[in-house]
Design brief:
With about 500 residues, the protein is an alpha+beta fold. The protein has 14 helices and 20 strands.
Length: about 500
């Protein structure tokens, strides 16, 4: 069953204006004003303005009279649509092969076969909302069975994210207002005059009188919302994408036939990329069925490649996910992400082989949904938890080797754990310590190694100090513990003890 995500950007026009004009005070209410002849009304309001009671559709003169110091800008639908297109293209590269604009203030995405790459629907929505928030854009995102249901819920319910379980769309949307059906404003106004308030009331009414008076649009929108009629999402495309197609006079459906034509598309795509000096990092196979539905497969690589056999294998490994239905009438292969790729001389077999290339293994694991593939790299920092970072497994070395005079433990804990200690202050190692309910007597110790706080990171670390000790208990186990503070001045730390790692 297809699953659809609707992303609602309620303040996109005003957010775009703020990004273009940093001189606008952050606390000032901002609205955009549309006009038709002599009539002027609010077409968008930011969060500050909505808190003051302003809303879309309010006359501009009334809003200006209600709020002193109101920042007003002329509406620019073309610029708003361009901003929405840029965000949609960004989502296409990050989340799913099937993403489209839902103008004027939304984006729609089919996540079938792609949500597992993000860890599931709820983690995917949380990551999506956090990514938009990092860009300074408040959003609401809802995943449901249909485009109509997800669109309506994203604009009608509170909260940043919501996941409607599969098969529960009907019971969720019947309480929504009829304005959420994406009907013409005049139709909505007439329906309210007739006494209709909710989608459930409209759905329970015989269709013949409604169709006779308003046409087939009401029935079509209801069927799309409840999933009785398909509403395909036409993926957004950019002229910069390298794309190849194959249409069929007779629909195809056999797996071996699909595999044959996919191999041909990969060959054509790689030739097109070679002409441009590019390699593909992420490729989408778009499957157009005869019933006007679209499916998609995504294959990613750790490095830019133009290896025809390898790309063919990555896509062939996932062909069983394709449901041909009544047949496939068109296949498209799109290079969504590309990078420059230079030709390299193949090393002779008489020369000693270089380091083993594990890129193929990384590609296989990544396309199966294994997201926690990374490599640790050193960072120039004395603070242990800041001295390493996670980077791409195929990233080049950054050269930030940070020499350590004192030994470091093999296992560093995610967070230091509080322990009970008996020790003579200020510089003596512990006599014993209790960790996880067990008391351990110290037989040998080395230290202290004093590590100062990084004052350029946070002002609270101006006077911060840690004294680290490497200790060994009576069983031969070795631990890395530290005291917060120098043992004398309380401003340097709490003087409590923590365990930060264990040695092999």
């Amino acid at each position: 069953m297809a699953r659809v995500v609707s992303v609602f950007l309620p303040t996109l026009p005003t957010d775009r204006v703020r990004r273009a004009d940093p001189s606008i005070p952050a606390e000032a209410p901002l609205v955009s004003v549309a006009r038709s002849g002599s009539k002027r009304w609010l077409s968008a309001v930011d969060t500050n303005a909505s808190k003051l009671g302003l809303h879309v559709g309010m006359p501009a003169a009334k809003a200006q009279a209600l709020v002193q110091g109101l920042q007003m800008v002329d509406a620019d639908p073309a610029a708003d649509l361009a901003a929405l297109e840029r965000l949609t293209l960004w989502m296409l590269t990050q989340y799913s092969p099937i993403v489209a604009m839902d103008p004027p203030d939304g984006i729609v995405m089919d996540t079938e076969g792609a949500d597992h790459l993000q860890g599931g629907e709820e983690p995917m929505l949380s990551r999506l909302v956090n990514s938009f928030r990092a860009k300074g854009l408040p959003v609401r995102a809802v995943v449901a069975d249909t485009w109509g249901a997800a669109h309506a819920l994203a604009r009608s319910v509170a909260g940043e994210t919501r996941v409607v379980p599969p098969g529960q769309t009907t019971g969720t949307v019947v309480w929504l207002p009829i304005s959420s059906l994406r009907l013409d404003g005049e139709i909505v106004k007439s329906l309210r005059t007739l006494g209709f308030r909710t989608v459930g009331e409209l759905a329970a009414t015989p269709r013949a009188p409604l169709t006779l008076r308003f046409g087939p649009e009401i029935a079509r929108k209801l069927d799309q919302m409840f999933g009785r009629v398909a509403e395909p999402i036409d993926p957004i495309r950019s002229p910069e994408f390298v794309e190849v197609h194959r249409s069929f006079a007779e629909p195809i459906g056999a797996p071996e036939t699909i595999a044959k034509y996919v191999a041909q598309l990969v060959r054509r795509l790689c030739h097109a990329l070679q002409e441009k000096g590019l390699g593909v990092r992420r490729a989408d196979l778009i499957v157009h069925r005869v019933d006007n539905t679209v499916q998609a497969l995504r294959a990613g690589t750790a490095k830019p490649v133009r290896d025809i056999p390898w790309l063919t294998r990555l896509l062939h490994d996932r062909i069983e996910r394709i449901d041909p239905g009544f047949g496939i009438e068109k296949l498209s292969l799109v290079a969504i992400m590309v990078e420059p790729l230079d030709e390299r001389q193949i090393v002779s077999g008489l020369v000693d082989a270089a380091d083993v290339d594990v890129t193929s293994l990384i590609d296989i694991l990544g396309n199966r949904g294994t997201q926690r593939i990374y490599r640790l790299a050193p960072v120039a920092s004395d603070v242990p938890e800041r001295s390493v970072q996670q980077i791409s497994p195929v990233a080049d070395e950054d050269g930030q080797n940070w020499p350590m005079i004192w030994p470091r433990p093999v296992r560093l804990m995610d967070r230091p754990e509080l322990i009970e200690v008996m020790a003579l202050l200020p510089d003596h190692p512990p006599v014993w310590f209790t960790w996880r309910g067990k008391r351990r007597r110290v037989k040998r110790a080395d230290g202290p190694e004093r590590i100062f706080g990084e004052w350029w990171q946070r002002t609270s670390e101006w006077a911060a100090v840690r004294d680290y000790f490497t200790v060994e208990d009576e069983t031969g186990e070795r631990y890395w513990i530290y005291r917060s503070g120098d043992g004398v001045d309380p401003e340097t730390g709490s003087h409590r003890w923590f365990i930060h790692g264990t040695f092999a």
